[in-house]
Amino acid sequence: MWEIIRTSLPQLLAAGFKYTIPLALISFFFGLIIALVTALIRLSHQRGPFMILKWFVQFYVWLFRSTPLLVQLFIVFFGLPYLRIRGILPHGIKLEPFTAGIITFSLNTGAYASETIRAAISSVDRGQWEAGAAIGMPRLQILWRIIIPQALRVALPPLSNSFISLVKDTSLAASITIMEMFEVSQQIAAANYQPLLMYTLVALIYAVFTTVLSVLQHYLEKRLGSQLEIS
Fold this sequence. Notes:
The protein is mostly helical. The protein contains eight helices and no strands. α1 (about 1-45) packs antiparallel against α7 and α3 (about 70-80) crosses α4 (about 95-125). The model has no long low-confidence stretch (mean pLDDT about 90).
């Protein structure tokens, strides 16, 4: 047993640092951008043609929050190649597994995180907007210099939890042949006929990763809280 662990652990860790962590980091980065844009659009009070964009992002959030992540991965990776449109997409949309994973995880994260960011911005007292306007600040400057820093304190814990969940959800990428930790553990288990040992080992590695992230989350929350108290 110890020999299997000794030989398998480096392979699992290599897959974790080469695919699992980068997949989570890149997807979360783009997901936050999507989430912020989506939240701001949904909070906007503009009317007219802008309402079409608002309805579109509402539909996007509903769609990705209402369907399983695994199904979304399958649609993007296995389904889009069959989206053939004569003269435009004669061969469908074929994506590399890692690219398909980033797109799917980013869109999924963006849908969930947009609700977190929207709620955090809405929680900031309306008087903050009025105070900024009273001293002549434009609305965009009020948003970035007054509202967002206060909303960040509210949004940080749930966003951190979303990232930790995303690290674990990357195990689903094995279903589209991305060589992350779970996929590697499956291949090793198929070779040494020790599925219980291999899956337990990869579960422990995930637990270590998420524990480190949880400690970092706690540190960031304390650091952000102390900075806001000083300011």
